Amino acid sequence: MVVIMKQGVSQEEIDKLSAALTEKGVQVNPVYGTDVTILGLVGDTSQIDQDWIAANRNVERVMHVNEPFKKANRKFHPEDTVIQVGDQTIGGKRLAMIAGPCSVESREQICYVAREVKARGANFLRGGAFKPRTSPYAFQGLKYEGLELLMEARKETGLPVVTEIMSPYDIETFVEEVDVIQVGARNMQNFELLKELGKTQKPILLKRGLSATIEEWLMSAEYIMSSGNERVILCERGIRTFETYTRNTLDLSAIPAIKKLSHLPVIVDPSHATGKWWLVEPLARAAVAVGADGLIIEVHNDPANALCDGQQSIKPCVYGELMEQLRPIAQAVGREL
Ligand code: PEP
Ligand code: MN
């Protein structure tokens, strides 16, 4: 961290601030210029509140030299994190292909879709039991019954289950029943939920918030990791922009950016990013090409009558075609399906 003092600040004030900073456990290296003095802080600055320094009336500006996230930072963990989920991995050479309906609707539906996507190469099943809907009058999910049905589909197909948690009250149940716990875009900054999930050892699929910057997203991962759970998978699912033609705007640049900044695996959700079923295929191909570690895709047996997100859901046969299109792209970037 670098602190730039205001012009003409007295030595006494500089010494006062330096002493306060030293007390916080960092080494202060002053550089005296002709007009201004700069303080270089060396050591663990993660515990020092930048705003506290900026509030000092003798300070002109405070700048971070290093990123504020530590545990998620590639600088301190150069090798890629690979997360083991049963006999599957996320972040390794093989792409994690997560597929299934937006929400669990019935035993027949979830088991049928699970069988269909598995036959076409998916290695994880998705399905929402607790749904974060914009309207309180919209279908809210089958809740605990939905979780039971997901477990039945897992039993039948062997596919590990990915499903969204909405409340810290359900953590115990999710830890018992689910393989990967999803934190949805709307809860990316629900810090109490993140801290509680950090006390578990379950893999957490952390979706990017609707309007979150890459740094805010990584800081949310940091909440989970600093609470004790380092098994975090990031998911780019599109961000809000001025464009309304698509549901969101898929930020493909976030994938190589995350790869540079962090060691955590990062996957892409082209379904929520675009909100249009026919855009899922081209953006899934692009996601694999830019280095995503996997894809989470909404697949429904009957999209026209889906209780949630039918407009962006593809049918199992389309999912099968997509898998075939992805194969040569995956191979070209050194991955496999
Ligand atoms: C979902 O995956 O069904 C979902 C609600 O996604 P998001 O949180 O990205 O909107
Ligand atoms: Mn959905």
Description:
34% of the residues lie in helices and 18% in strands. The protein contains 11 helices and 14 strands. The longest helix has 17 residues, at 316-332. The radius of gyration is 23 Å and the shape is elongated. An 8-stranded parallel beta sheet has the order 13-12-11-10-9-8-7-14. Strands 2-3-1-4 form a 4-stranded antiparallel beta sheet. A two-stranded antiparallel sheet has the order 5-6. It has 337 residues and is α/β, with parallel strands linked by helices. Strand 7 (96-100), helix 3 and strand 8 (124-126) form a beta-alpha-beta unit. The structure holds phosphoenolpyruvate and manganese (II) ion.
Q: Please write the string of helix (H) and strand (E) elements.
A: EHEEHEEEEHEHEHEHEHEHEHHEH
Summed over residues and divided by their number, the pLDDT gives a mean of: 97
The distinct bound ligands, ions and cofactors come out as: phosphoenolpyruvate, manganese (II) ion
- Tell me, briefly, the overall form: elongated
Strand-residue fraction?
15-25%
The helix content is 25-40%
**Whole-number radius of gyration?**
23 Å
Strand order of the largest sheet: 13-12-11-10-9-8-7-14
- Characterize the main sheet: 8 strands, parallel
Structural class: alpha/beta
Low-confidence stretches: none
Tally of individual helices? 11
Euclidean distance between termini CA atoms: 43 Å
Count of strand segments: 14
